[in-house]
Amino acid sequence: MTAESGAPKPPSQARIAVRAVARSLGASLRSLGATLARAGRAVADFCAPVTGVISTTGWLVLGAAVVALVLAWVFGWIEFAFLGFTLLAAMLVSVAFIFGRMHFTVGIELQPTRVVAGERALGRMVVRNAGGSPSAPARIELPVGAGLAEFVVPHLAPDAEHEELFAVPTNRRAVIIAGPAVSVRGDQLGILRRTVRWTDPVELFVHPLTARLRPSAAGLVRDLEGEVTKVITNNDIAFHALRAYEPGDPLRNVHWRTSARTGQLMVRQYEETRRSQLTLVQTTERAHYASDDEFELGVSVLASIGVQVVRDATRLSVVTEGVALRTATPTVLLDDSSRIEPADGAYPSMRDFVRDATKRLPTPSVVIAIGGSQLPIAEFRSVETVFGNDTETIAIRVELGTTSSLAKVAGTTVATVGALGDLPRLMRRVRP
Fold this sequence. Notes:
Layout: H1 3-6, H2 13-51, H3 56-75, H4 78-95, E1 104-111, E2 114-116, E3 121-129, E4 138-144, E5 147-153, E6 161-168, E7 174-178, E8 182-186, E9 193-197, E10 202-207, E11 227-233, E12 238-244, H5 256-262, E13 266-274, E14 277-282, H6 292-311, E15 315-319, E16 324-325, H7 330-337, H8 350-358, E17 366-372, H9 377-382, E18 392-398, E19 405-409, E20 412-417, H10 423-429
């Protein structure tokens, strides 16, 4: 083999040119696409006041009219021409129904703003004519949860009011949004539709059912003053010993009798006490519960324990896959519990969920893990491995309709709750 045959071949100039042209063409196409997209958005924004009043039905009517006229032009069918012009005439006639201006002041009130699931809640909408001339009849739509309420407002004299009452469905725990109230002008066929928003949404909190527990229920706190540790500190409750004064020690800790007897300043030392810290953890994985009612039972158990702990002024953290609940007051905790929703595949196991959800929380003295009947006991026991030996873990397994019981499984306290009414009795028997 000669030296010439072993040398690398020079790159093809034609191939280099083709690649350069392809890169340049690609960049030009991307730039053109971005320009066209910006132009399209600008045109859409400019036409929004006109196209925004065309409803879905209106677009269907307009599209059918265009198709009919095209068929009439191509095939010469007079029937399609008649259909197309009739549909266009309907569009033109509908334009007259969207003109007009209203001067309303609309208010929405919910009474009460917080209820327990199953209690009755009513809403009130007041429409006032704030203009200087009588108003024409109007139609107002008010979304309430997943439903839509429609009201007809009659002629109103200046400063006159019209009141409408409506019921809010509260059979399930939820945060129900009422509003915004919008007035609707348009034709009877719904081809064109012009809306004006008058209010902001209003929230109604439907709290879960809860059971009233006894103050300082077993399993919630270890003692009233805290748990004494072996850590020595200068300020606490449990006295430990005396030591020689060092610069910077507060004078309030000086033991004057001993100092006078020894001729040297002596200060007190204390054993540090740790306040009880409870962590409530509920897995909201849909697969861990046999039914939606069982999931609601789990939320009720979580809320019942959490509310009592807050009332006992014990430090508390409450976490689920979707949200960390606030614990400032019982009402705030119940408000956040109304937002709990089932999760799907958020974590591969309950241990992974607990480890991730609690890694930024204070070290707990008691952990209560709540799950459904489809969650194996081994998953509850795996929660213990996330925390140290000083943390007591209690598992609460909700199984709707079963007999409530309390058992020890390999050292783990497992409480099975079949009905919310059994929870107070079970919690009295739990001992950390």
